[in-house]
């Protein structure tokens, strides 16, 4: 595996937490002076999961600001956005429960807004509409659920139920009315809530069909290119599905993907993928914008179509999740399997 190095290495701060960190997200800005992260943590000594908000000082030190602990099991997915004057947090658990919380901007306390049992078995992924109160939740049971927080009440809708014949592992909103889901066999479904009854488009990556057990672990969709769904998963696979070219996947990385694919960034699970908005494509003709990934074999890297991957961080343990700060895309936070987080500050 050939991995390029950055011209100038990022500044890296590793912070032990003495708890397992299942997921980490930047909290949308509350004030111009403070920066905060929300963590899904698990204390193995007490067998207790929790959601925590930590303040981050300019010197990259952490201070616990608040904790939310009444959870049925460990967090399987964590997302955050901002609505009106408050950060919103959505989370799902391995026992199928779904939670929506708000953060009080005055004291950073976490307040529960909704808690529902949406899935029979594990809830795989949740996603919040950017700047809104609509959430999609998918699970191992093949259910696709929508939850909306109105002014008066919580609204729930079951969009689809595969009755266990299909399991969904990832979900991502493309717009307030459209979203994508991913599952086994590197399959992707496109949904439009204005057209009920099932997905409006389906895709299976033929070039990786021999890896029938492959799983889509993460999806991202760029707000300016919502026709392209980016996916990552097993065996270091990263590919894009362009809805305008339904059967022509764009393979960015993967073990044994053949000609036209740059070196695989990893040969293990790619746990998460996000478009990297801090980097411009080096090739003006690139169909896919640069992306960032984290993997089971401890790699945090930037992948660009037709270029060698650029390594940001290499750890002796899995990097379970990461998040790029939207207000300052040069800042990245990630969770390490060895009970720690890392904060990377990249040169601007």
Description:
The two termini are 27 Å apart. This protein has 348 residues and is mainly beta. It is built from no helices and 29 strands. Helices cover 0% and strands 51% of the residues. The strands form seven sheets. A five-stranded mixed β-sheet has the order 1-26-25-24-23, with no helix packed on it.
How would you concisely characterize the structure shown here?
The chain is mainly beta. It has strands at 4-5, 11-16, 20-26, 36-43, 48-56, 62-68, 75-83, 86-93, 97-103, 110-117, 123-128, 134-139, 143-149, 154-161, 168-173, 178-183, 187-192, 201-204, 216-220, 228-233, 238-242, 250-253, 270-275, 291-295, 299-303, 310-314, 319-324, 331-336, 340-345. It starts with a strand and ends with a strand.
Sum up the overall morphology in one term: globular
**Number of helices, where a helix is a run of at least 4 consecutive DSSP H or I residues:** 0
Q: Tell me, rounded to a whole number, the average pLDDT.
A: 88
Order of helices and strands: EEEEEEEEEEEEEEEEEEEEEEEEEEEEE
Radius of gyration: 19 Å
DSSP, total strands:
29
Query: Beta-strand percentage?
Result: over 45%
The assigned structural class equals mainly beta
Distance between the termini: 27 Å
Low-confidence stretches: none
Spatial ordering of strands, largest sheet: 1-26-25-24-23
Helix content: under 10%
Question: How would you sum up the major sheet?
Answer: 5 strands, mixed
């Amino acid at each position: 595996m050939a991995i390029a190095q950055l011209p100038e290495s990022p500044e890296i701060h590793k912070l032990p937490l003495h708890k397992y960190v299942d997921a980490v997200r930047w909290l949308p800005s509350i004030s111009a002076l403070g920066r905060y992260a929300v963590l899904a943590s698990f204390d193995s000594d007490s067998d207790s999961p929790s959601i925590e908000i930590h303040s981050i000082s300019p010197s990259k030190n952490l201070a616990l600001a608040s904790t939310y602990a009444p959870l049925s099991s460990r967090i399987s997915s964590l997302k955050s956005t901002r609505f009106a004057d408050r950060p919103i947090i959505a989370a799902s658990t391995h026992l199928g429960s779904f939670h929506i919380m708000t953060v009080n901007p005055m004291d950073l306390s976490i307040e529960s807004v909704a808690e529902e049992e949406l899935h029979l078995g594990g809830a795989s992924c949740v996603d919040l509409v950017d700047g809104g109160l609509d959430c999609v939740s998918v699970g191992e049971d093949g259910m696709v659920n929508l939850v909306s927080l109105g002014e008066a009440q919580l609204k729930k809708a079951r969009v689809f139920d595969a009755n266990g014949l299909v399991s969904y592992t990832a979900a991502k909103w493309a717009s307030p009315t459209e979203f994508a889901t991913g599952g086994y066999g590197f399959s992707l479904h496109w949904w439009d809530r204005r057209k009920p009854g099932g997905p409006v488009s389906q895709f299976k990556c033929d070039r990786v069909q021999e890896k029938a057990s492959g799983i889509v672990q993460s999806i991202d969709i760029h707000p300016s290119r919502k026709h392209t769904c980016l996916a990552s998963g097993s065996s270091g696979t990263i590919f894009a599905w362009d809805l305008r070219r339904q059967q022509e996947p764009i393979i960015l990385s993967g073990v044994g993907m053949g000609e036209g694919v740059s070196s695989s960034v990893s040969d293990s699970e790619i746990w998460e993928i996000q478009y990297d908005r801090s980097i411009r494509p080096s090739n003006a003709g690139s169909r896919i914008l640069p992306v960032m990934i984290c993997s089971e074999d401890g790699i945090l890297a930037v992948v660009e179509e037709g270029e060698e991957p650029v390594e940001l961080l290499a750890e002796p343990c899995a990097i379970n999740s990461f998040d790029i700060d939207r207000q300052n895309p040069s800042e990245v936070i990630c969770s390490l399997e060895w009970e720690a987080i890392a904060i990377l500050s990249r040169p601007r």
